[in-house]
Fold:
Amino acid sequence: MIAQQLGAFSRYGLPLFALLEEKGLIVRQQGVGTRISQHLDYSLDDEEAGFTKLVLQAGGVAGNRWLERTTVLLPDEVASSVPALKGERVTKLRRVRLINGEPVSLETTWIPLDLLPAPEILEHSHQYWAERGIVPAKKKVRIKAIACQAETARLLNIQPGMPLLFYRQHTYNAQNSLLEYCEIYCRSDIYEIQVSD
Structure:
């Protein structure tokens, strides 16, 4: 009812929803509906502050929906990306990242077990590293565009087939030891990823 009333208002001959969409304040998508626009300028620089801090700086509320916080034997399909951990038991974290309660990315992370032996205590990874004096110094990132598969679409509350940004990230300390390996599916309507020279 309210949406119908708002849609009926106009300014300069345009419906209010069209004006809000033009200003980038809302996103209208057939089959999904109308929602307030979310946007995240996500930096991959070494100085990058992390998801939570970037969302807070933009005036939003960051959150996690944890799917897994456990220790596992590194799967064979992942070992090809992190051969240094092949055959080892590792910490596995899987979560949906939220901005203002809305799912924006699906992240799976594998961490050497000695760095995070009790995964159930983790809430925000950058805070965990900082408290233990662990300093990420270098990242290696590969990004590609993919179509969203059904399970990921369900977790991100979007339609299957929608475009996603998929990136694999290795994070190392100053001694070139692996701190974590991540596979992240990012909603392309939310994320703008920045990489510096």
Observations:
- The chain is about 20% helix and 45% strand.
